[in-house]
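step: validate -> pass
step: tokenize input -> pass
step: predict -> running
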Amino acid sequence: MEQNTIEEGKTTAIISYITLIGLIIAFIMNNDKKNPFASFHIRQALGLGIFLLLDGLIIAGISHILYLIIFLGIFVLWLIGLIGAAQGQTKKVPLLGDYFQDWFKGIG
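step: predict -> pass
step: emit ->
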């Protein structure tokens, strides 16, 4: 990916990792320009957000310890994604990143 494309999409990519509101704002910001770097990170952040929501809605009702373990795992993946966006990398989050890119390929 070209350095110019990365620099243009970096702010949007970082914003996508900052809460659900940030993800929505990033999606709207990227809607006109369709920056590939920002789109990549929007898909990653969306996937992590969905997994976090499912963790809270489903797993928390089953086991609080399992919920906490999964939450911490998602938090680590979120940090990896955020750091990658800030450093201008298109590195997928471990374990789930390939799925996020495939499941949400029409987004961004």
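step: describe -> The chain has a mean pLDDT of 95.
step: cleanup -> pass
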